[in-house]
């Protein structure tokens, strides 16, 4: 390993063991040793650290009461935050940033960046490029691309990269942005937004609210009672375990619910696509089956195709529509 027992990373109290292992792997990949890391001691409660133009490898040594702003460089920087509140801006280059403990703000900037929020309620932006974003512990807000959050160098919405975002533990809000993004809520009651592009979105554990966004998305609710919005495009929707609600709005495309079972519901917008649909009974005559035996709900310019599970049949849906559908 590039880190050593008793060294600066091994003895750090601001980062998890998982982060320590990742840092060691990064050093090994770059053919570096732990001795190449620079310790930056924070001497005032509010301090700005400006990195040199070259590739930087720094570890911030702060207290819980410190607020540290780190301005990145054009190189490939490795920055490990302290136990205070860190605001780290990567700048250009393929950066690796670790918030550590505290409520941190990380902005990857340009390049394909690796961002770990760490312990605390963090705001993490991948920025321009194909980024990896980990919220870890706490109620985090994660962006695959760039948003104006007060971070130095933030540029507002950017052209999206193909990002992968993991919420970790806590109730997180995750925004994919543009590009083909992969979003994983993991543990907690999360809100996930695929946004533009053909995205892959997993709620995972907890009662999640999941939005596919624009594009043809694949959306998994996972465990828990989830609310799933396919939104625009022809989407593939999986509720998973729990009693899930699939929300269908006007101009949503031709969506597929691939595991509809007892306990699940489909919520249809009132007067969807200009149709006279004001109550659940208006949907019954619009139900039919396709050649594969799936139930198809005709919504004018759009449709919802449902693969029924657990012995559920179209006759049951027609006989008890209020159990399986709602207008809202």
Question: Strand pairing plus helix content: what structural class?
Answer: mainly beta
The dominant shape is elongated
What does the largest sheet look like?
15 strands, mixed
Low-confidence stretches: 149-158
Helical residues, percent:
under 10%
Side by side, the strands of the main sheet go: 1-3-5-7-9-11-13-15-17-19-21-23-27-26-25
Number of helices: 4
- Please state the CA-atom Rg, rounded to the nearest Å: 23 Å
Amino-to-carboxy terminus distance: 56 Å
Return the average pLDDT rounded to an integer. 89
**What would you call the quaternary organization?**
single chain
The counted number of beta strands is 28
Give the amount of beta strand, in percent: 25-35%
Give the topology, please.
Blueprint: H1 17-29, E1 38-41, E2 46-50, E3 57-61, E4 67-71, E5 78-80, E6 85-89, E7 96-98, E8 105-107, E9 114-116, E10 123-125, E11 132-134, E12 141-143, E13 164-166, E14 173-175, E15 182-184, E16 191-193, E17 200-202, E18 209-211, E19 218-220, E20 227-229, E21 236-238, E22 245-248, E23 254-260, E24 265-268, H2 281-284, E25 287-289, E26 295-299, E27 302-308, H3 314-319, H4 321-324, E28 325-327
């Amino acid at each position: 390993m590039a880190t050593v027992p008793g060294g600066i990373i091994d003895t750090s109290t601001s980062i998890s063991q998982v982060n320590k292992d990742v840092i060691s792997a990064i050093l090994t990949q770059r053919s570096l040793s732990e001795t190449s890391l620079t310790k930056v001691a924070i001497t005032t409660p509010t301090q700005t650290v400006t990195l040199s133009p070259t590739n930087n490898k720094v570890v911030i040594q702060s207290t819980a009461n410190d607020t540290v702003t780190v301005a990145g460089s054009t190189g490939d920087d490795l920055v490990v935050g302290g136990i205070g509140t860190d605001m780290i801006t990567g700048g250009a280059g393929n950066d690796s940033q670790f918030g550590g403990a505290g409520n941190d703000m990380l902005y990857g900037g340009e390049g394909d960046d690796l961002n770990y929020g760490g312990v605390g309620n963090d705001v993490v932006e991948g920025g321009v490029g194909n980024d990896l974003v980990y919220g870890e512990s706490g109620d985090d807000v994660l962006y695959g691309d760039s948003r104006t959050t007060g971070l130095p160098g933030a540029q507002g919405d950017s052209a999206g990269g193909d990002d992968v975002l993991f919420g970790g533990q806590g109730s997180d809000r995750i925004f994919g942005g543009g590009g083909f993004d992969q979003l994983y809520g993991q543990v907690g009651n999360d809100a996930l937004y695929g946004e533009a592009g053909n995205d892959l979105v997993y709620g995972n554990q907890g009662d999640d609210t999941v939005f596919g966004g624009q594009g043809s998305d694949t959306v998994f609710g996972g465990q828990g009672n989830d609310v799933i919005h396919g939104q625009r495009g022809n989407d593939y929707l999986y509720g998973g375990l729990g009693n899930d609600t699939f929300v269908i709005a006007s101009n949503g495309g031709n969506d597929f619910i691939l595991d509809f079972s007892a306990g699940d519901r489909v919520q249809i917008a009132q007067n969807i696509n200009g149709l006279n649909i004001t109550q659940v009974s208006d949907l019954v005559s619009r139900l039919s089956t396709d050649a594969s035996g799936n139930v198809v709900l005709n919504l004018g310019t759009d449709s919802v195709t449902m693969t029924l599970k657990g012995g559920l049949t179209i006759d049951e849906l027609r006989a008890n529509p209020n159990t399986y559908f709602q207008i809202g």
